[in-house]
Amino acid sequence: MPEDFIPQSTADGSFTFFSKEFEESYHSQFGARQESFQKFVVPTRLEVVATASKQKTIRILDICYGLGYNTAAALQTIWKSNPDCRVEVIGLEFNPAVPRAALSHNLYADWNFEYIDILTELANTHYVENDNLKASLLIGDARTTIKQLSQSFQADAIFLDPFSPPQCPQLWTIEFIALVSQCLHSEGLLATYSCSAAVRTALLTSGLIIASTPPVGRKTPGTVAAYPNSLQFLTQHPLSTAELEHLHTRAAIPYRDPLLQDQAQIILERRQLEQRNSQLETTSSWRKRCLSQNSNA
Ligand SMILES: C[S@@+](CC[C@H](N)C(=O)[O-])C[C@H]1O[C@@H](n2cnc3c(N)ncnc32)[C@H](O)[C@@H]1O
Q1: Ligand 1 pocket check: which of 40, 94, 175, 193 to mutate, most ligand atoms within 8 Å of Cβ?
Q2: Which of 75, 227, 249, 279 is 20 to 30 A off residue 67, Cα-Cα?
Q3: Does the model's pTM come out above 0.85?
Q4: What is the CA(237)–ligand 1 centre distance, in A?
């Protein structure tokens, strides 16, 4: 289905697109630009890392590059803190028309963004290199392109930003997230806007520990993940009791895609079957139990 890329405004004045194929916006209606900073760049502590690293290279894996907002927010944050910092970015994106459309619609006009030439070259040639940047865009299904990276690219920050699990389950499965976790440096941080129990289970199953990121605009938090030796970066927002309990209901049954090639519908049906056969409490009965406990308290 061809996408027509009509800019839609969001609450912070920045623009996004709506995908007809995935029946979903590329960003939250509460603010596309705000989401990039607050859900991805702030939780991965890039400002602190950039300030602390005098010579070091910061490596970023931007999964579902899309309009490029998360990479743009990261570059702006890092070079504002430390203009000499060297950055390596790898973006994974299925549809190369998306970043080009963001630029042709001038969607960075009110970002006060100094690096538009970089994003333009990246969108057009999928590669940019200069004294303090090396950026590549790997075009294709991220389930395949990520295999080029496993172990060879150790990211200080991973942005995990697919469409939502019901619309794009293939990029939230146990198997895909296991490959993603192999690209995370032992002291790196992974951020996603999702607080889905199934996604959190996949992160935990990959050997990561998780915390919440504060809700921005909407009610729900996001998630930040790291290897256990980076626990100190996750202590600010531990999971609440309700979030921990949620991980013991059927909602926490993860998406599975054993060969990393199934279509969305197959992955959704596989999970529904596993949920039906599960001994775990249903999420609706857990919610009712919580409500009645709270009203009796
Ligand atoms: C929610 S949008 C990402 C928004 C983006 N991070 C930004 O800041 O603009 C999801 C993106 O995932 C891409 N996508 C969908 N399925 C994919 C797949 N299997 N592999 C790689 N990218 C995919 C879509 O083309 C879309 O650009």
Answers
A1: 94
A2: 227
A3: yes
A4: 27
